[in-house]
Automatic annotation (TrEMBL):
The lineage of its organism: Bacteria, Pseudomonadati, Pseudomonadota, Betaproteobacteria, Neisseriales. Its main location: membrane. Keywords: Cell membrane, Glycosyltransferase, Membrane, Transferase, Transmembrane, Transmembrane helix. It is a multi-pass membrane protein. It is found in: Cell membrane. This is UDP phosphate-alpha-4-amino-4-deoxy-L-arabinose arabinosyl transferase. It comes from the Bacteria. The chain crosses the membrane at residues 95-112, 141-159, 165-192, 204-225, 261-282, 294-312, 318-334, 346-370, 390-408, 420-439.
Amino acid sequence: MAEPPAPLRWAPLLALCLLWLLPGLVGHEPWKPDEAYTFGLVRHIAASGDWVVPTLAGEPFMEKPPLFFISAAWTMRLFEGWLGAPDAARLAAGFWNLIAWLGLAAAARGLFGPGHGRWALVLLIGTVGLPLRAHQLITDTALLAGFCCGLAGLSLALIRPLSAGLMLGAGAAIAFLSKGLLGPGCLAAAALALLAHPDYRRPAYLKTLAIALAAALPLPLWWMASLYQRSPELFHLWLDANNFGRFRGTVNLGPRAARGFYGLTLPWYALPTWPLALFALWRAARARQDWPAILPPLAVAGCTLAVLASAADARELYALPLLPPLALLAMAGLRGLGRPPRWLNIVLALLLCALTAYMLLCAAALSFPLDIHPAREWLGRRFHGWTPQFQPGRWLLFAAAAALLAWCWRQPLANSYRLIWRWSVGLTLLWCGMATLWLPALDHGMRYREAFAALKPGPAALIRPGDCVASLGLGEPQRALLEYYAGLRTQRLEIEGGAGSCRWLLLQTLHDQVPPPYDKLYPAYVFQRPGDRKERFRLYSLK
């Protein structure tokens, strides 16, 4: 069993976790693009109770299975009396974060011994790429929880086959029902890769895999059977186009992968875990020890990275499942790092002071009509059209969070543990500032409420109740929120030939790139999202 890490009390850890988790979960509308279409799917399940076929603005949306949408529909129906519908649905992201934390802590405890689960959690929430995505209404938070549960199963496989198999199977099922074949495929590849090591060619590990297979299959098979019974065409659309086709790039879904995309993304996205992970691998190769503890996360990280790099499409969001195994590898590196140079603590403190000062400078420019030169260009580009608004309650909340984090910063910790702790505290401070002081301006630039609410049918509005509205080029996020804010479900010219007989046409374009023959028409109404300089919406009267 490994030596115990630096003792970390529960009170500061709980304070850090709450200050990281709670800000950003509520207080804003669904944001483009992922939150917007996800919210449309959640609303459909909450209203209809149909968990078999995810539906967006009246059309089947077979990109992802329904687990996250179901969980968000539950939280929306449970908390909508106290919160707005988007905020109530977004609480599901907090729930899946908690599941991920428990799975990661169990994995770290199984690999390194008691006390290490807390530090693995500190490493995970300290990664630069996690805070924004972990607080969004997206299926990837459930996928992250599935990977953490799967990691826990692989980490405990040699010592507790029954519970390990159940956790591995549950993780694979959660990953499958969140985003399809990618998650369970990566976990299965990692589980098979571990058989290359003699320690895993034992009956206990084979028992773990058998239990995992039995635990993973029932719920995915139930949903697939229900989907096939409902519509074989939709089943094949989900399986062929949205799994294999998307991976191979034979369908026009998702952004195409640039050369070396993850090699360029992970150096900032996975800080500070990847340097510690590389140190753990170097130390294990040099000393020929610690391999049993790092093999499960190494297998998961390696197989997942190989699958992501082989896929035809790529986004930084897809790298989220790499963060838990990298946190466990970093835990191994942290244990052997010893006392870091004193200058690292000084550099970290100076960097945090500089970033906090800039964050507060931008917050002041967003709250007061100040012409602050260092922030002027960036603010004008990111928050176009924003009018400064001073909200004292938000400043008081940030001040309280900063005071609590200052107490966390001063916790007596030794060696490299103090450096990592302060890194995570500093990142949480920056996130609290963004999620409180910047949130109104961020919401202004990312929401569609004002843009689409103006189209709501009414006696004095352009669009009268009962009018038929066709659309062309209208994206999935826009269709979902147009139905939510304006109550409009358009007939799309892309799939409905009779939509041309409608009274109105809503056209979405980039800038002023209007396709013929509509470039010869004069629009009745032209609008755009408040903070968006690219998207244009034009409403044409066809009669």
